[in-house]
Amino acid sequence: MKNEDFKELVDRRLSGLVWDEASRRKVLNAVREEEKPMKKKVSFTVVLALAVLCVAAVAIAEGLMFSPRYSAVRLANQAMEQQYGITPDILSLFYRQVEQHGDGTATVTYSVPGENGLPAEQMGEYTVEVKDNRAKASWSNDGKDTSGGLKAEAFGAEQLRLLSYDYDNAMQQLIEAGTIQPKAYPTPLPVASDSPTPMPIVWTAEHQAASDLAREAICQEYALTEDQSKKLNFEPDSTFITWQEGQPEAHMLFWLWQGEDDTFHEKDGQYWVTVNLNTGVIEDILYDSGLAANG
To answer: In this structure, are residues 15 and 59 in contact, taking their beta carbons and an 8 Å threshold?
Structure first.
C-alpha cells in the first residue's frame, strides 16, 4: 500500500474515532516494549501498528469493511438458505469456490469433492450468480425428487441434515443400499483451492488488531449471542500470513464449542477469517460446523 493511500484510509476511518481505555492500554504497552534505555524513540513498526489499531477500533465502531469477494459470498450463502433451505451448519458439507468477473459480477459454486466419500451425485452442485447485490442460486439436481429420506433421487436439505447430524448411521444406510462404496471418513475441506504457501508469523500489535476485527466479523456475520461471543476462542498458533497481489493477509482460526461433551450446539465449529493487514478489510470468512466427520 502506498503511503498516501494509507494516509487517506486513516483520515477517512478515524474521523469518528472514540478512543477507549482498552485501546489506550494497547498503545501504551506497544510503546513501552519499543522504548530503548538511551533513546526514547518509537520505531516505524510501532507507528504502523498503532495506526492499524486505530483503523481497527474505528472499523468495529462504524461497521466492518468487507471485500467484494466476501460480499458475493454473503449474498450466495443467503441465497442457498432462502432458495434451498441450506443453513450454515449443513453448508459445511460443500466445498466453496468463488470466481470474480471483470464486470463486477461473481459466480459462487458449492460442490462435493469426489474423494471424500459423500454421495456427490445425489448432493449435486450449486451455482450462485451474484449481480447488482442480488444472488440467484441453481442446483444441478433441480427438478429431481427429494422425497423418501436417504432413498431419494436427489439430496436436499432434509438429507443433508441427516448426513450432518447422524453421519455414521446415514453413511451405513447408504452403503447398505449400494448408493456409495465403503470409504474412509471424509478429509477436512480446504480453506481455499488456491491458497499460497503460508509464511511464519511473529505475533505483534498489528496482528492483534486484525484478530479483533476477525472476532467482530464472526460475531456480526453469524449473530453470536453475548455468551457465544465469550466462548469464541482464537488460536494464534494456527494463524499464518499469505500475500495476495502485494497485500499481506492474515488467516486466523477461531473455535466455538459451547458444551462440556461432544454434543453439537448451534454455531459450534471453526471459523477461518482472512483479514488484509494493510487495510483492515475482511477478505473472507469460512465456517465449518465440524459435523459429518469433517472436524
So the answer is: no
Phi, psi of 82 (to 5 degrees): -70, -40
Strand partners, 136: 129
Q: For 187-241, how does the pLDDT look when each residue is reduced to its tens digit (9 = 90+)? A: 444 444 444 555 556 666 667 889 999 999 999 999 999 999 999 999 988 888 9
Sheet with 134-139: list strands edge to edge.
95-100, 106-111, 126-131, 134-139
Q: How far apart are CA 26 and CA 13, in angstroms?
A: 19
Strands, E assignment, the chain: 95-100, 106-111, 126-131, 134-139, 232-244, 247-256, 269-276, 282-288
Measured CA to CA, the distance from residue 89 to residue 294 in angstroms comes to 11
Q: Which residues share a beta bridge with 130?
A: 106, 135
Which amino acid does the sequence have at 3? N
Q: How far is the first Cα of the chain from the last one, in angstroms, to the nearest whole number?
A: 37
How far apart are alpha carbons 160 and 139 in whole angstroms? Answer: 14
Query: Using an 8 Å Cβ cutoff, are 17 and 63 in contact?
Result: no
Angle between the N-to-C axes of helices 205-221 and 44-62, in degrees from 0 to 180, rounded to the nearest 10: 10
Q: Which helix (H) or strand (E) holds 161?
A: helix 157-165
Overall residue count recorded for the chain in this entry: 295
- Specify burial of residue 14 (Cβ count, 10 A radius: 0-12, 13-18, 19+): middle
Per residue in 30-53, is it b (16+ CB within 10 Å) or e — as a string?
bbeebeeeeeeeeeeebebbbbbb
Across the strands, what pairs with 256? 232, 269
Q: Give the tens place of pLDDT for each residue, 236-289.
A: 888 889 999 899 999 999 999 998 888 999 999 999 999 999 999 999 999 999
Report pTM.
0.75
